[in-house]
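# nightly structure sweep
# worker-07 picked up a monomer target from the shared queue
# config: single-sequence mode, recycle default, output format = structure tokens
# input follows
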Amino acid sequence: MSVERLETYRILNLTPFFNNDGISSDADRRDGNFNGAGATYPEEDLPASRSLLECEGVVFQFPDKGDGLDNNIALEGQRIPVPQGVYDCLYLLGASDGNNLEDTVRFIFADGSQEETFMGLSGWGKRHSLRYGERAAVQCSGYHFPSRHVYTDRVGVDYGIWMQRAPIRAARPTVAIVLPDNPGMHVFAMTLHRACQEGR
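# output follows
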């Protein structure tokens, strides 16, 4: 991965805001609860903890997958501070824990002004019918459930984590992102794209 590409993106540290454990290993499928019913992403199908993940040229840092650790944000209106800069797009890795969900994300600018942008996230089992133009960043062989019942033992091939984008139209320095209050939507990683005019 080139230095120039890394410099184009601002990877955000979301660890302080993680409030959900959505990943479990084959050895302990009871660790975590992504969807409220005990189901989780299989650790074995996911990128390495804290590794850089690239999807269509966008660079993210994948969270720590360790047992007992929160690794995603269930969206509850969190305000995420960002290094002040002029950005033109927010990219995120996420999915909804059931049905497709829609909401808005709010950008806060240094001058106190704000901008809202639509954001939709398809359900985590919808790889073949992503509704909101997402890209499949991570594809899984299925999902984990505490029970090893035949119908929930890593069945299906549609499960995954999607890359979504939210454009920032105002060419003003951004200082914070306010996520929607919609806990069925989950985010594992976020990256901002630097606007080309920054630094001129």
